[in-house]
Amino acid sequence: MQGPEDEGAVPRQTVRTEDQLPPRPYGGKAMLRLLELLESQGLTTLAQTAAVAATTDDVQADAVTHARTVGVLSAAAPARRRAARKRTAASNQEEPAAGDGEAPADEGSTEALAATYAAVALDGTGPPTAGGPQWRSAGPWTVTNGQTYGSSRVNVSGRVSALAVDPGNPAHVLAGAANGGVWESWDRGGSWTPRTDFASTLTVGALAFDPGQPATVYCGLGEADWWWWLGNGVLRSSDGGASWTPACTAPFVGQGFYALRVDQTNGRRLLAGTTGGLYVSTDAGGTWTQRRAAATFAISPGTGEWLASSTDGLFRSTNSGTTWTAVPLPGAPTSFVRLAVSVAPSNPAVAYAFGTGAPWIAQPDGSQIPTGYLWRRAGGTWTALGLPPGLATGQSWYDWYVAAAPDRDTQVYCGSIEVHRGDLSGTTWTWQLLSNKGTTGQSIHPDQHSIAFEPGNPNTIYAGCDGGLFRSPDRGITWVSCNNGLAISEFEYLAQDWGSARWLIGGTQDNGTNRWTGSPVWEHVEDADGGDVWVNRQNPAIVVHSRQWGALFRSTSRGDWGTWSNVTPARPAGEGLGLFYPPLEGSATSGDTIALAMQALYVSRDNATTWTRVGFPTAGTGTAVAVPDPDTVLVGLSDGRVLRTRFSAGSWSALTALTTARAGAVVSDLVAAPGGSGRIWATSTSRGGGRVFRSDDGGVGWTDRTAGLPPLPINAVAVDDWNSDRIWVAADLGVYQSWDAGASWADFSASLPNAFIGDLVFQPNARVLRAGTRNRGVWEIPVDGWMTQPICGTQWTGTLAPNAAGRWFTFNWPATWHMLWTAVPTSPAPGAPQITFRTQVERADAEHVTYWITVRNLTAAPVTFEGRYCILSRY
To answer: ω into residue 359 within 30 of 0, thus cis?
Structure first.
């Protein structure tokens, strides 16, 4: 989740007015976004559990206090480390660590949360239906010009959390996306097919082939780095990964997988490292026994031994994982944020351990980062090694691994934000930075999560990161993108050109802002963390997008690469920044009004050239904005308030509060009729109450329209421009449709994968609804079905004198429609050609066209004719 525009690379004034880094919790940007997500759903206790996942026992209290200070963590019960346990000194038994335990049921234990999501996913939300409109992928098939730290640009996709290469066929590769399911390739990552779109969860933490029977593959559901709370057990495939069935759910519901291993001497024995501990199965994954309760990050086999790394250190088993003995590491801390381990396949006497822990190093923003450690075992002794130069440890809870080269016990790969390779010659280590070559050589995207080697060819390595998957044929010196067809981009927000059926722009997690112009291949048009976006409805050449912490940039060239200028509003010293991705909207009708909500509302009437700050009546954080017309702005806050301002007599009025639909509930989206005094829709991500509300009187009164929807957060709402009673809402899983203004709901998710949906946009002229998902790209559906036959009719009747010519026009036709115009004589009697006609098209405005039809009478008698049209397609 690092990026080339992070940590001061963005000019200071685009981030905040004070000369300091934006405040963030322990664990960096990745943790900040995770906490914002959990807090927005009312999962405060779970958020605190997450907050201390980036720490060790000695600084947990400091981490929680700091997260509360910077406003990304609410006050609640004492935080608990993810499944952290301490071992008794006298036995191999586990006992709970002080303060440990599950989150209270009323705030949603991870097991209850995961079960809820799985139930919705398996309730027919996504699979294709026999009839009715179906969703289809709009890509990105890949994203060109993707960002790296270095000078070279690459094709990217989204976060790859797990990798496995078939031991029986080196061209056969499986990749697991963080929340995008399992993908299969038969050509070394040249092309891909999704394999688990309709599984109980698309969160993937680990993949493992059975070395003795490669047709058997296992998948651990629940990505431990982020989405662990949606874990739902283990899937098994008996056809190499083409199809999957559940091997088990218990005991892994609500746990995330770090590691999954199949014993090469006994294919029915599996070992799993999860957020809930270390587990062993002896029946091919059907049942499991917990052997250690500390969160376990990596498991590596040797000759007659297994090594496992956990929060409480490194452990060794010599009886196939039944019992474990602590392995002392010289100078090691008492507990770890992350610890990875790898036994050298070419010489099992050699192994590597790579971790982070105390002492903690203070940062300018008030947080702390852990110290890094690297050890090597040789001759039965573990020795501390020097770290790769420039190693970043701040996100080690999120991106971290170690892997010994398959054929050299003197070569090791260390993954953090970057990939480093160490080579030992004699007693000297030489380190190379593989993923960020700077101004020379090839670079790949940062934030490393997984690595794999091609069987039989140790020169070929695969690296999975926040930007997708990359393959190197020469141990990391050069790279090939494996992101063609790997449609797993993580979209946060979408915006559209109303006058085009095939033009979108969207912000993506750690992969900047990307644009679609009809091709399956999208273009990366701006760097950094891509946030909210807006397109001027009357002049779509004007596009505004946001980076992290409300930095705004504008293009007057439809978002072309290199055309963006900084238009961030100045903020007073001491004012907080609000959300990592603050909400941004512009006028839904006419005009050049645009609004950004942080810890105050910022409004511009000239496409972000000049700004007016409108303060909230009392302190708050903006979470949603609606601009129904150029003179009206509504803003929703994290505490449930909805406020409104109007432009009159040359200034914006003070924000006035509407009636609160649900106090304390985060407002996730707003849609309002022009004027803001009529119908308003408000949605919420907060659980345990109403999440869709309708007001028909400008917010004086609200009606809860949540009944009939699944018990999940609601992230976005869209309204049919042709029928204001027809609406769609996006839940974390699924899209739902109402024809009666929310009185009843029906699932509208046919063929839509069970992915997290963050945003909806409706193209009213093309009649297409689009959804931006995290880790499955963008999807679209024709809300009325695709047209199967033309719609034809008569637009006008005309008469021409003998040998005369005339010109007619018909206007206000949507520019997205594909149309055919004809002039057909109705008199006199047929017998010879009577008229000719010619059609010309005028672009009337950004959304509409005017058709000019010139008709000539070829006869010496008057002629009457009809101007007829056929709508061939709206898309």
So the answer is: yes
